[in-house]
């Protein structure tokens, strides 16, 4: 039985679909679904 599912989300359509699939997997077993949102931070040089 599945108890926990972790899904990463970077805002793309692919990750949106992964969340949908993970949700479908989690529902029948009442598993806990954790979303990990990924941010890409760009460094800029200051003058």
Walk me through the topology.
Elements: E1 4-9, H1 13-29, E2 32-37
Parallel strand pairs: 1-2
How would you describe this structure to a colleague?
This protein has 47 residues and is α+β, with helices and mostly antiparallel strands. The protein has one domain (4-37). The protein is built from one helix and two strands, in the order βαβ. Strands 1-2 form a two-stranded parallel sheet. Helix 1 links the parallel strand 1 (4-9) and strand 2 (32-37). The protein starts with a strand and ends in a 10-residue tail after the last strand. The model has no long low-confidence stretch (mean pLDDT 91).
In a nutshell, what does this entry contain?
The chain has one helix spanning 13-29, and strands at 4-9, 32-37. It is α+β, with helices and mostly antiparallel strands.
